[in-house]
Protein backbone atom coordinates (compact mmCIF):
# COMPACT_ATOMS: atom_id res chain seq x y z
CA UNK A 1 0.00 0.00 0.00
CA UNK A 2 1.22 3.50 -0.76
CA UNK A 3 1.98 6.06 1.88
CA UNK A 4 -0.95 8.33 2.60
CA UNK A 5 -0.14 11.95 3.31
CA UNK A 6 -2.10 13.90 5.85
CA UNK A 7 -4.53 16.54 4.71
CA UNK A 8 -4.93 19.97 6.24
CA UNK A 9 -8.55 21.15 6.35
CA UNK A 10 -9.32 24.84 6.73
CA UNK A 11 -12.42 26.28 8.44
CA UNK A 12 -13.90 28.53 7.19
CA UNK A 13 -13.11 27.00 3.78
CA UNK A 14 -12.50 30.20 1.81
CA UNK A 15 -10.11 30.18 -1.12
CA UNK A 16 -7.75 31.85 -0.83
CA UNK A 17 -7.73 31.40 2.94
CA UNK A 18 -8.37 34.77 4.58
CA UNK A 19 -7.72 35.47 8.23
CA UNK A 20 -10.77 37.47 9.25
CA UNK A 21 -11.01 36.62 12.88
CA UNK A 22 -9.53 33.19 13.31
CA UNK A 23 -9.09 30.08 11.23
CA UNK A 24 -9.22 26.48 12.45
CA UNK A 25 -6.81 24.04 10.83
CA UNK A 26 -7.50 20.32 11.16
CA UNK A 27 -4.89 17.73 10.29
CA UNK A 28 -6.63 14.65 8.89
CA UNK A 29 -4.92 11.30 8.90
CA UNK A 30 -3.18 11.61 12.24
CA UNK A 31 -4.48 8.38 13.73
CA UNK A 32 -2.68 9.11 17.00
CA UNK A 33 -4.19 11.66 19.38
CA UNK A 34 -1.72 14.26 20.57
CA UNK A 35 0.99 13.26 18.09
CA UNK A 36 0.55 15.96 15.45
CA UNK A 37 3.53 18.24 14.89
CA UNK A 38 2.62 21.68 13.56
CA UNK A 39 4.82 23.97 11.48
CA UNK A 40 4.45 27.66 10.75
CA UNK A 41 6.64 29.27 8.09
CA UNK A 42 8.90 26.18 7.93
CA UNK A 43 9.62 26.13 11.65
CA UNK A 44 8.15 23.84 14.28
CA UNK A 45 5.26 25.61 15.95
CA UNK A 46 4.74 24.60 19.57
CA UNK A 47 4.83 21.10 20.98
CA UNK A 48 3.26 17.97 19.54
CA UNK A 49 -0.43 18.26 20.14
CA UNK A 50 -3.98 17.82 18.94
CA UNK A 51 -5.01 17.33 15.32
CA UNK A 52 -6.55 20.82 15.16
CA UNK A 53 -5.37 24.31 16.01
CA UNK A 54 -6.86 27.79 15.88
CA UNK A 55 -4.76 30.25 13.91
CA UNK A 56 -4.76 33.97 14.62
CA UNK A 57 -1.68 34.95 12.60
CA UNK A 58 -1.00 34.80 8.89
CA UNK A 59 1.64 32.41 7.65
CA UNK A 60 2.21 29.09 5.90
CA UNK A 61 1.10 26.13 7.97
CA UNK A 62 1.79 22.39 7.72
CA UNK A 63 1.17 19.40 9.92
CA UNK A 64 3.14 16.20 10.33
CA UNK A 65 1.79 12.95 11.75
CA UNK A 66 3.46 9.63 12.55
CA UNK A 67 1.23 7.64 10.17
CA UNK A 68 0.74 10.07 7.30
CA UNK A 69 3.74 12.37 7.11
CA UNK A 70 3.89 16.03 6.16
CA UNK A 71 0.97 17.64 4.39
CA UNK A 72 1.17 20.18 1.56
CA UNK A 73 1.46 23.72 2.94
CA UNK A 74 -1.60 25.91 3.50
CA UNK A 75 -1.19 29.69 3.38
CA UNK A 76 -3.39 31.76 5.69
Automatic annotation (TrEMBL):
Q: InterPro entries from the xrefs? A: Ig-like_dom, Ig-like_dom_sf, Ig-like_fold
In terms of Gene3D superfamilies, this protein maps to: Immunoglobulins
Q: Which domain of life is it from?
A: Eukaryota
Region annotation (Disordered) maps to 45-76
One Pfam short name = Ig_2
Q: Which residues does the UniProt record annotate as the domain Ig-like?
A: 1-76
Q: Where is the composition biased (Polar residues)?
A: 55-70
SUPFAM superfamilies membership: Immunoglobulin (SSF48726)
Q: What is this protein called?
A: FCGR3 protein
Organism whose genome encodes this protein: Cisticola juncidis
Q: Which gene encodes it?
A: Fcgr3_2
Amino acid sequence: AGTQTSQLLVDPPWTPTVLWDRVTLTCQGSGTVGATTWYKDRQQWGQKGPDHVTVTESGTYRCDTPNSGLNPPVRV
